[in-house]
Amino acid sequence: MNMPLFHSSDEMDRLLTAAKKCRSEYLHSLALGARDKVAAHARYVRTFGATTVFALACALPLGLAAFYSPAVHSGTADEHWRADVTVVAIAPDGTWGTATDPLTNRAVAKAIEDCKAKYASEIGCGYRSTFVRQGWSLVFRCGTQNILVAEKGLADAQWAAFRQERDLRARYVRNMPACERTLTVDPEGQIIAPKNNYFSTF
After folding, report:
1. Is residue 197 part of a domain?
2. pLDDT class of 102 with cuts at 50, 70, 90
3. Cβ distance 93 to 112 under 8 Å?
4. Cβ neighbours for 18, distance < 8 A, ≥ 6 positions apart
5. Which residues does 26 contact at the CB level (< 8 Å), separation at least 6?
6. Per-residue confidence (pLDDT) for residue 44, from 0 to 100
7. Are residues 177 and 108 located together in one domain of the fold?
8. Which of 109, 116, 140, 193 is the most core-located residue (most Cβ within 10 A)?
9. How distant, in Å, are the alpha carbons of 20, 93, 107, 131, 181 from that of 172?
10. Structural domains of the chain, count
């Protein structure tokens, strides 16, 4: 059977309508698929975003608490800060004065007065000074050099003095005479008879 080379105008209209319908359905299916993918992605983003925001909201107060939570002071810490302050003030020749008082500025003034009572000159007391709460204060005289330290523990004070002596000998006064301890003040502010070696109990 021979097929006509050209379709009639009615046949052409029918075929064109069918092609448009097929293309429309195909494009429609593509659009629906794309819409479903976008919706699924949006649901994922909303779920993930909400979870992330919730997690951050929970974590943020904990993180801030680590940095900004008020320090909880133990009874021991409170007692330490309520303890009296011991101040030692010395003159260039090694004359010392010491005082213990609840107020730092008042302890400084009393220590300087104590030094002046023994110092030959009017000016010079307090050219160096230390202060500590419930700690040890030591003064050493090394020829014409002074070593003045104050630390919480006696061993720490002794080692601080040793390091100062070592630095003085290494950098400034290589032939410095042996050091002698001229003052020891205990954590209660009591003056203890000095002993010359660094590692004695007092």
Report:
1. no
2. very high
3. no
4. none
5. none
6. 43
7. yes
8. 140
9. 101, 18, 32, 26, 20
10. 2
Among 5-19, 31-45, 87-101, the range of highest mean pLDDT:
87-101
Which of 130, 122, 97 is CA-nearest to residue 111? 97
Quote the CA–CA distance of 51 and 55 in Å, as a whole number.
Answer: 6
> Taking a C-beta distance cutoff of 8 angstroms, is the pair 139, 182 a contact?
yes
Q: Is residue 44 part of a domain?
A: yes
User: 148-158, pLDDT tens digit by residue?
Assistant: 999 999 999 99
Q: Contact, 183 vs 138, CB < 8 A?
A: yes
Q: Which residue has the tokens 């030959």?
A: 120
CB 152 within 8 A of CB 134: yes
SS3 labels along the chain: CCCCCCCCHHHHHHHHHHHHHHHHHHHHHHHHHHHHHHHHHHHHHHHHHHHHHHHHHHHHHHHHHHHHCCCCCCHHHHHHHHCCEEEEEECCCCCEEEEEECCHHHHHHHHHHHHHCCCCCCCCCCCEEEEEECCEEEEEEECCEEEEEEECCHHHHHHHHHHHHHHHHHHHCCCCCCCEEEEEECCCCCEECCCCCCCCCC
Tell me the mean pLDDT in the region 175-197: 87
The answer on 51 and 83 residing in a single domain is no
